Amino acid sequence: MVGFGLDKTAEREWAVANMLTIVRRVLATGAEDAALVLNGDLLLLTRLDGALVKYNRERWWSSYPAAQQLVPG
């Protein structure tokens, strides 16, 4: 498990970009199942049996233009 504590005063795009960079690196370390859940209740992505699936594309992913480049899929 990897946990993130994002500073509410930090520039939002910067904080999200840094978080997704770490997520991308974690996903690159192996093929194990994984999930990215925001604030304990918003499922953003899963990787099950090697298949990466993004959730809440319109609600969350589309709000961050760099997100697609950082974690493709």
Spatial arrangement of strands, main beta sheet: 1-2-3
Global geometry: globular
β content, as a range? 15-25%
Low-pLDDT regions: none
Report the strand count.
Answer: 3
Count of helical segments? Answer: 2
Number of domains: 1
Terminal CA distance:
21 Å
Q: What is the percent of helical residues?
A: 25-40%
C-alpha Rg, in Å? Answer: 12 Å
Largest sheet: 3 strands, antiparallel
Describe this structure in words.
It is a single chain. By secondary structure, the chain is an alpha+beta fold. It has one domain (12-70). It contains two helices and three strands; from the N terminus they run αβββα. The protein has a three-stranded antiparallel sheet with strand order 1-2-3, with no helix packed on it. It is globular, with a radius of gyration of 12 Å. The two termini are 21 Å apart. 5% of the residues are buried.
